[in-house]
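Schema walkthrough. Field components (list of strings):
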Amino acid sequence: MPSSLLSPRTRGLAVLALVVLLLPLALRNTYYYEVAILVGLNAIVCVGLNLLIGYAGQISLGHAGFFGLGAYVSAILTARYGWPPLAAMLAAVAGVAMLGYLVGRPILRLRGHYLAMATLGMGIIISIVIATEDRLTGGPDGMQVPPLALAGFVLAGERTWYWVVGALLLGSVWLAQNLIDSPQGRALRALHTSEIGAEVCGIDSARHKVRVFVISTIYAAFAGALAAHYAGFITPGKVTFFHSIELVTMVVFGGLASTFGAVVGAAVLTTLPQALTLFKDYEMVVFGAVMMLTMIFMPKGLVPTIARRLHAAGR
Amino acid sequence: MSLLRVEGLSKEFGGLRAVEGLTFSVSQGKVFSIIGPNGAGKTTLLNLLSGIYVPSSGRILVEGRDLTRCPPHEYAANGVARTFQNLQVFHTMSALENVMVGRALHERCGLAAALLRLPSLERAERDSRAQAEELMRWVGLEDQVDAMADELPYGSLKRLEIARALATRPRLLLLDEPAAGLNATETLEIDALVTRLAESGVTVVLVEHNMRLVMGVSDHILVLDHGRRLAEGAAREVRRDPRVIEAYLGAGAA
Amino acid sequence: MSAPFLQFLLAGLTIGAIYALVALGFSIIYNASQVINFAQGEFVMIGGMATVSLAGAGWPLPAAIAGAVLLAAAIGLALEKLAVDTARKAPVVTLIIITIGASILLRGAAAILWDKNVHALAAFSGDAPLNIGGATIVPQSLWVVGTALAIVVVLSLFFGRTLLGKALLATSHNRVAAQLVGINVRHVLLASFGISAALGAIAGALVAPITFTSWDIGVMLGLKGFAAAILGGMGSGPGAVLGGLVLGIAEAMGAGYVSSAYKDAIAFVGILAVLFFLPGGLLGRRSADRV
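Field assembly_structure (string):
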């Protein structure tokens, strides 16, 4: 239908598809492809996290834990138990989803900073277990991960993985957008604004919160498993609470309640440190300063602020 | 047949007894009004009847079903809808979307259909939209269908909440001071709307200060004072009851 | 009381006192502004590193500590004035991200200004271990617990008796009402950052002789302090102290009796358990929403 082709979200998806298709023209060598793949993987996690934080108004400071579990479970099943990689990935994602469901119900009864603390605690517990159970996980030194193989065809090489991650990113964004525009998405946005108002309309807010939490953990675990098989190696470094904070920062930076904001946030905050290495020792100082200045002058995040300026200028 | 039956209902906050030992029934299709001076426990009672507060003691039965300790969404699922004195409008969404949220109980789309945007979902959304528009027309907001909720004036928002409550297809509608904060014109409009609601056969429990509205539309009135029943009966009787007059206007006026 | 138990208890009290000071810093800023200051840990780091620096440059220890605390306080004031105040109309989540950016900036600056090595600070009154009931502690532990106690007393006098202290309390209960009675809320906010930074720095200087100090110790200490503040009930002063002590003791007991590798995990499992039963923390407010 013509009207839906021109709707803002189809336009956004089309722009993203265009960027994914044309970006390789600017990627000069393997290193650039690596960064692009990393952006894509972070973006997948952020899209899911944004559903939880931006739309449902909850918070998680422990999502690196789910990312790491997805990675490690898939890695362990393939490397130590000889599972086929695809089955291992699916099992990892299913396992994390189940964990998300079990802890989600009690944790999401908390609010605000208490919820933040509980999710933070969860993430840290996961990272400690991973780092300590070194017989299984290789401990602080990490472990090797077999590559992803589909029906005998091994996915290797930056260029192949770029297209895989690019396609999966587009799929992730499409699914997230569908959820937001659906009755379930409306229920989430409603309970974010007024939980009581939503409840008296028959919306079981606890069930909805747990459901979107589980969905966000699925996104994170999926990206984690992909990351493990792509890199061929996984260490606990990616499971720290630093990484959890990084993810939340990407979501807020790009713009809450904006799926494309989540993608842009992931893109900027993943590539920025790479770009800043030319500042050598001053890299952290500049990065911190950029973060502060952007949030001070664009408090709603990059994409909503730019969208509003464009909208106002277009009048 | 009583649609709503309340038995020995009490609610305590710390040492404060907000509501004490209330027992009454609301018959189907009637307008049952609850009046009383400020602090009499009217809003607490409505919060109890919609599951927002859990009673300290007593029972609440809706169509014979005991809903006493149920959460708000289960009251809604059992046909109880309400509006709020302090509006709980979803101000980040459009007016239409607000009403569409009210249809949550009747939307039968699974998560898979939503995620994959199946044709069944598109059809269901079109239906929802049409029904929500119809309700907005019914409450007199046909011009505001595409407006964002935070652009609407206060009077329109009160009517929007009523439309949203009606979208849940309630058997029992609890209205919490629908005329509060409205100017004279808006009050007349709400007056007419509540009258139309009563005539359409929805059972209404109305909490209101505006006596003209209450006396004009009620079949039965319950007067609360300090959380307890002060008087009960038809409008004529309650209006002349000396205890009621004393509670409102002081001992000298009775 | 068995000697090992006493040993762990005393170790727990020592580190718990540090957590309590950091937690107080979180609570004070949260009370004034609803913001979680993720840069709080960096004030602890500045306290330790600057003291080491100044002492190494020849300053007498008390002067070095005072200098470090003043430096941290100045940075805290600057952070509030330049960042938090400028963005005061932003949503709370944005303000939190700003403090995260500040924490990264401060850490990067510390790595440049000083270095990435671990540094030791001389204990305030020597290293000769003391024997208490079969348990050994270092004198520095007494300094830690004693100073923390003194600070708690000073703070309660401050909040209870001085005008600025009462203004801070009033703002935390109801900002609009505080403004209406003439309290300059922006000054209150500034003061809260200065005080919290000073608290953090004192904690940093106190603990440096025991755990050593480096450019990135602020992260874990800040995290634990945040956890302690939540455990005790965010925004409650007594809660912060209680939370800090409980966390410290739980950690020490966990490390001693269960497993040293899992000690952090045990502490967090404990916090999650508390939050499960008491969603507002140990001493947190349990207010109902008015509808």
